[in-house]
Design brief:
The protein has about 270 residues and is α/β, with parallel strands linked by helices. It is built from nine helices and five strands.
Length: about 270
Amino acid sequence: MKTIAILIGALVALTSVSARAQPPAGSRYVAMGSSFAAGPGVTTSADEPATRCARSRDNYAHQLARRHNLNLIDVSCSGATTQHLLGPWNELKPQLDAVDADTRLVTVTIGGNDVRLTAGLGAGACRTAKAERCADIPAPPTEAEWAGLEQRLTRIARAVHNRAPNARLVFVDYTTVLPPEGTCPALSLTADQAESSRAINARVVALTAKVARDTGSDLVAASAITAAHNACAAELWANGYPPAKGAAFHPRLQAHTAIAEALDRLIWR
């Protein structure tokens, strides 16, 4: 009897996983995150009229939703931190409010702004390029800030799983903007500035993977998918400084397309 009970339990678990694996057409899909999810400057605005969140109609969430006819609720917003998923941000509700019991898929790209990743890149490049009105270079993140980021990422994952027990949660980490070592003219960064930002980015990526693993969530490693197409590569999927189009140190359309394809392979194939 004990063996039968174990087998039945395993079958129930497999059925549950299978039920979450492939959201059917028309399913509610909630996309949350920062600008690396929103896609500022990528093709055209998804919001009419355009909002300060700068969501693109061709960010990875919109591309994935079109592929599978999902009911997308894109609440990602440029400049967002984990605090803005958990709580309100001026006129914006907490991004987590979009997740309900009917939600079948959730994607999250968040964390870089908590440790001032893009702010540091932008300030450093601005000063190296000797541009006018540069922001101050932010202080490096403290260990307390890293610990807080991990706690909030964990809270986000647990909140999604509690609010939407039938949803599949996929963390999408940050795309690779910088080369694996050194710098290049397209970045307008010194070698030290690039190395400092590279270390912050690597820790955000590692922390995202840890939280995904610890909370039973999925992960798409956009960092690995885009590594060969950084802002110094021959085939660019990321902007340097100053960008010809879009946002500095952010993924281009090609990166969003590659992420959508990776999500497709993870969930539907």
